[in-house]
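About this split. The held-out portion is used to measure sequence recovery: a designer receives only the structure tokens and must propose an amino acid at every position. Recovery is the fraction of positions where the proposal matches the reference. Here is one held-out target exactly as it appears in the evaluation file.
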């Protein structure tokens, strides 16, 4: 049974949500609990309610829309993704997993399906690390893999805590209470854009994700005396930005030298103080993203970067501190969920190919608590985290159709 996806409605919703943003269309910026994020959350809640879903919000702001099944004692099947977006990003990342999941549920409803297991649509809080330099915040809490102490240490750029942000958003309750009980879900499937070039290059419409690369974030702080850019002569200088430049080079060099193309290293965020053209920097803070499909290899590069930063600081006579903000294992998909996805592809007459995800997703942490897998659809030019990110309405609809097929199978099987 192929569920009838309403391609126009789904595309119109993606375009409508894209305009709830702190940057002008087609750029999307939607950071945790900002006014744009809150508007998007209200808009989505309305769409979930219009579809007859029972909506709840947990203590960290994850939003759940539940379609009851015929067996109230059976563990639900879940799907979902995120609607938050890093600054100046695209309109499909995360969004197609939330709106595609909503459309899959509506299509199953329209087809007269009565799932045995309830189906829950989840919009996860803060999949992006933008506000608190800690990605997948909502799914980590659901999986119970983050300690209260770690959450208490989170600070945003203005020094506000997660509790400050929750209060600002009207989200309350004890966060440990949001942790899902073991067996809360029978399965989880996430639809997402590939954010890479593989599917477009091969002309395959659906990717079936077998594993998700292991992400890590290292924060390095370098400090120096600073001083007047004209008055302090070069031999007297201890400039942390010059040391930071050596760290940036080390990240690139060590990632390229790992022996595998699956290792990536990026310095995506750097702040310096005081930030005046005629003042020698006093403090530099760098957040460094290091990933690999192989966790041990990732950790080898991570330690190499830490050592390179210590050496650069010593050679430049500047202060050094670092913190591993997160170092997560890779996720492996569940065979039964992979089969449900591939059966749905076959039923829809769509070819598919198995692949790994180089981006991380909430599925990384859902895989800790239930059988999980992902469905990818192509990204034009492999582009993502840019306003020109693009996936056509037909490609998104194919992903939603396969998702509907997989959810139907998973929600009716024992
Ligand atoms: O960075 C990632 O892989 C994801 O897009 N947050
Ligand atoms: Mn992203
Ligand atoms: Mn994403």
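Reference sequence for scoring:
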């Amino acid at each position: 049974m192929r569920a009838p996806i309403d391609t126009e409605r789904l595309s119109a919703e993606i375009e409508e949500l894209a305009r709830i943003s702190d940057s002008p269309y087609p750029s999307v910026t939607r950071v945790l609990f900002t006014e744009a994020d809150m508007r998007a959350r209200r808009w989505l809640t309305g769409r979930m309610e219009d579809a007859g879903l029972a909506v709840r919000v947990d203590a960290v702001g994850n939003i759940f829309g539940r379609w009851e099944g015929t067996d109230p004692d059976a563990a639900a099947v879940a799907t979902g993704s995120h609607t938050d977006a890093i600054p100046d990003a695209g309109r499909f990342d995360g969004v197609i997993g939330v709106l595609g999941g909503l459309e899959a549920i509506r299509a199953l409803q329209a087809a007269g399906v009565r799932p045995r297991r309830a189906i829950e649509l989840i919009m996860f809080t803060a999949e992006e690390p933008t506000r608190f330099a800690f990605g997948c915040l909502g799914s980590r809490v659901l999986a119970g893999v983050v300690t209260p102490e770690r959450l208490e240490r989170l600070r945003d750029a203005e020094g506000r805590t997660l509790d400050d942000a929750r209060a600002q958003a009207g989200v309350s309750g004890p966060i440990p209470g949001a942790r899902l009980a073991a067996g809360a879900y029978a399965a989880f499937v996430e639809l997402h854009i590939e954010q890479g070039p593989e599917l477009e290059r091969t002309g395959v419409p659906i990717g079936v994700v077998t594993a998700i690369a292991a992400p890590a974030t290292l924060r390095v702080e370098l400090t120096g005396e600073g001083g007047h850019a004209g008055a302090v002569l070069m031999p007297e200088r201890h400039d942390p930005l010059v040391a930071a430049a050596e760290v940036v080079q080390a990240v690139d060099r060590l990632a390229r030298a790992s022996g595998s193309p699956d290792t990536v290293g990026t310095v995506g965020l750097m702040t310096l103080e005081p930030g005046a053209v005629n003042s020698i920097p006093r403090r530099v803070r760098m957040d460094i993203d290091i990933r690999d499909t192989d966790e041990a290899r990732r950790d080898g590069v991570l330690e190499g970067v830490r050592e390179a930063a210590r050496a650069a600081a010593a050679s430049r006579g500047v202060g050094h501190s670092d913190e591993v903000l997160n170092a997560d294992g890779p996720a492996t998909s569940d065979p039964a969920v992979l089969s449900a996805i591939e059966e749905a592809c076959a039923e829809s007459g769509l070819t598919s190919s198995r692949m790994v995800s180089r981006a991380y997703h909430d599925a990384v942490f859902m895989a800790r608590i239930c059988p999980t897998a992902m469905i990818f659809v192509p990204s034009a030019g492999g582009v993502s985290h840019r306003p020109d990110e693009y996936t056509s309405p037909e490609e998104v609809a194919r992903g939603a159709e396969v998702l509907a097929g997989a959810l139907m199978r998973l929600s009716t099987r024992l």
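Annotator remark: Residues 6 and 220 are 48 Å apart (CA to CA).
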